[in-house]
Amino acid sequence: MDIEGAPLPLLTRRIAEAPADFLAMPRIGAAGLVHVDAIARDVLSSRGIDVPITALAALSSPISPREHPRLALLICWLLVEPQLQWPNDPNALLALLLIRARELAVHLSAEAVIADDERREELARLTLMALGQRPAGESLVQARDRWLAVSTMERARLVDASRAAEQRARAIREALARKAAEESADKWSRE
User: Which of 113, 96, 89, 99 is nearest to 23 (CA)?
Assistant: First the structure.
């Protein structure tokens, strides 16, 4: 996120104005309308990144989360924004489409992203971060803080960590209670 990227309001407005075609059902097997893998390949090719269609097969996989291809479509829509700078590394874009969009799909639907200001901001920030950028006018610290505030993935990670810590604390309390009961029983048996 060392590079200052496009302005955030421009990106969130673009997401909000995504055409209905970008919310159509992705083609998975024989069902659906939109060939997400082909669109992603076309978007990448438009910037001179030649990726074999097989590298994007996860975007039409039935084992992928249902919202993964739909969020990848929204990212493709965002990536064609003329003010968005692309990295020279095609792996960053592939990771965005194949990994980060999949992670986000566990928590969000494409409709939620379009309908909610904070979710649009999250997708725009996720895209900028994947490109190694931060929103125009923000410092690195501001960009990181705001990402932590809007990220459903980060929120889920914190909830999971909190649950794990609570389980560890409960196990320790139970172990201490057992030990205290054993010591008490030993004391009574000696007397």
Answer: 113
What's the rounded Cα separation, in Å, for the pair 19 and 12?
14
In contact, 100 and 126? CB cutoff 8 Å: yes
5-37 burial string, b = 16+ CB within 10 Å, else e? bbebebbbebbeebeeebbeebbbeeeeebbbb
Residue 43: CB atoms within 10 Å: 21
pLDDT digits (tens, 9 = 90+) for 77-107: 999 999 998 877 788 899 999 999 999 999 9
Query: Shortest CA distance to 105 belongs to which of 46, 145, 50, 59?
Result: 59
Q: Terminal CA-to-CA distance of the chain, rounded, Å? A: 69
**pTM of structure:** 0.79
Sketch the domain layout of the chain as residue ranges: 3-150, 151-191
